[in-house]
Amino acid sequence: MASLMGNGHGAPGIVRDPSTVRGLEIPHVLPHEKVFPIQIGSKLFRLSGASLSSDAPSYFSEYFKCQLAQAETRRAQGEPDQGIKTLYIDRDPTIFSDISRHLQGYHIQPRDGSHFVKLFADAQFYQLPRLVSQLFEDNIYISIGGREFRVQKDLFTAPGDTPNFFTLGFAVMFSSTDAVFPGLDRVGLLRPPSIMPPAVPSRSGEVFAELIHMLKGYPLHIRNEAHRAELLRDCRYFLFKGLEQKLIPHSISHNLQRGKDEITIRLEDIRQPGLSITFDAPFQNSPSPEPLARHLRYSSPSMSGWVHYMRPFVDATPRELIIEISGECTRLDIDTMRAEFSGDAKKRVSRLVEVLATKINVPNARPMGLLMGSGKGSQPESPASGGLGEGSVKVVFEGSSSVVLDGRVWKEEEEEGGEGGMKMEEDGGVGADAPPRKRRRVEGGGAESEIWTVRTGQWRVRVQAASNDKSAVECVLIAVKIDAFTAELARNQERGFLSG
For a 10 Å CB count at each end of the chain, is N or C smaller? Predict the structure, then answer.
């Protein structure tokens, strides 16, 4: 029989830990066997002293303790016993029905955001410490785009995902169990203030559900770039910075020929904390010149290195950075081998150079490749020169650089004793050598530089000593893959008709 009763003191089949049983004891704030009447709105509730003592001290326990003390005083003075007066409170009896079940030992769960704030406000008003603590530690109830969500707070434990919209937004009203009504004096408060249920009607409930799905650790199929943009937009709205870094377009691979891990990422998605420079080892030999390495002078190892990147909050180790710049915002001068950027790309490249300069203690961005004072990059742009203006950056073509110019594969060849030739592969795949590209003449007898417009370019970033000043440092973009055109004809050929 004892085995059926567990330890002999509990229900059959239940083994109770004595320490746990002691923790469930109800304090004797009020007589456990006595019943106390409470009128909430139009409904009368009768709760035992044990129920009221289970979450005390509270408004109820203090009120009825005073009633019992007054009754004891009257008995001591020989006055007739008038009994316990009914406590009347003008609040919602439906909400108090849930609270009464909590006092009777049942676990209550808010149904939605509206139910949550009503329970929370009344629990504070009735000064029920255990219920307030339970609701304070409970899930986040919120309506987004008209759809109700119950969000577990432990979903925000990943690096970068906190603080966020919820931890900051709920901090005003639900930040402390002691001060839930900021600016209001609890003494003499007839009723709690009206609290609007948390809601974000301006965002999509479907998109938020997908974000929660990812926060739970599940993979999400991104249908297209428009879908990715929706996810990223709401990630930034709700301040899920760690999740945002997982969603941004990127490519991580291992380059076996270079023996390095690489990360390709868009220029606009680069964040300053993720940038670093891996300097060349002092004992490392300079790389052997490639067919097109005439544009690149590798500097002393102590002054040169490759820029690496790791996504904040996501990656553990940095990888060699390949920046993708798109949107036809790059103009490339083939004669001076310098690139000029426009619009937001110009600001971002300048900022990138400034950040790299601070990492190697360079006073400003000018020694890092912007306006180095060599070639056309140091001269103001004019129609006669046809070159690039201020703010250009040095670029390099290597033999491994993949270049598509005007829709055809472009290759440059080194000719002995002469200028570099150009090789354009025909559509049939058969190579045909072309004579060196001649620069167009302008008035005054000068030669016009050849300018490419780069649709999309991928570049490695290298920091090295400037070729014309060994005491200075410059930033060099090494071409990895480029899609460019020389005339508007090639651009127009890529256009599509709106009518299909």
Answer: C
